[in-house]
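sorry for the late reply, my laptop died twice this morning and i had to redo everyting from scratch. anyway the thing you sent over, i finally got around to it. pasting the sequence first so we're on the same page, its 330 residues, then the predicted structure underneath. double check i copied it right bc i was rushing
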Amino acid sequence: MNAYSIPESLVEPVKKLEEYRKRMLVPFRILTILGWLLFFLGPATGIGLMLYYLVFLHSHDLNFTITVTLIPFVLGLFGGGALLVIRTHFSNKIRSLTRKTIFESYVNLSYQDIVFPPKGQALLFNDFQTLSPYGPVDYYEELNSYSASYRGVVLRACDTVINYFVPGGTFSVDHLGGSSSVMDIGRMVAIDLGRDLGASLFVTDSKKKPPFSAAKTETEYIDFNRVFDVYSDSNLFVFYVLTPQFQEKLLNLSKKYPDRFKVSFYVIGPKAYVVMENVCYGSDAVWTDRPLTEEYVLKATLLLDLAKDFIDGLKLYSEKYQEGSLGRAV
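ok and here's the structure:
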């Protein structure tokens, strides 16, 4: 992993959270072990007793044999199932507090005017589907979404999961003669620029092609060109947006995030998009039965920093965006 550290505001809350998780994991693991043991040993014991009476003792009392068989069978299934249901209480408490401490509290510290969706729902930002480079989509889902503002700039963010269509192979729910493959796109942020800037821009370190017709462009910064591919339908727009300071900011971001996370930046119409791939449910990867590692905390908080990093780096709150001079430059 690259060199970075847990945000200072989360150090103490995370320590307290880890102590709480360790206490709650004891009953969770005990109930899990006992539950699965009963669930499998009960039926196994019942079948073993039936074989013992019928094969070894040659019992002809079927009612007695069935009764002896059913008692451990039923007790194992229902008893084990009940223990596994009870352990979900501890699991849900761990997940809930972890999410509030790391995800929700950090969002509240970082942004203003925050709106989380009602429990069990999502704030749907369907325009994210247009950024998918994977072809026909079978299934699209948004998770852990919220809308907010930062320094007066309105933004929306979510984790996205897409099942995309692969030609050939097996039958798919929505397509004939193909298969549906899961692609966890990762974290997506939409930033409202308030106006159509008059040109489109695509900057990526993942070697993807742009979702619009554009020519590849190189900047004067050689180190930047080694890391990022730049596409735009206006060379003037490229150099106006990708100032030397912003290019340096992008390079620093590529070093800040783990190497396997691929970042792309779009300007399309009145919106800018930031997409980070390969994060695997980064905002909600709360593993109940695993230690709360530094890598997990970093994974979640770095993703939440994504919008701030780009708004600050591009100075989207500055005069050239707020008064539309960037659009006039195209």
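Residues 8-110 form one domain.
thats about all i looked at so far, will dig more tmrw
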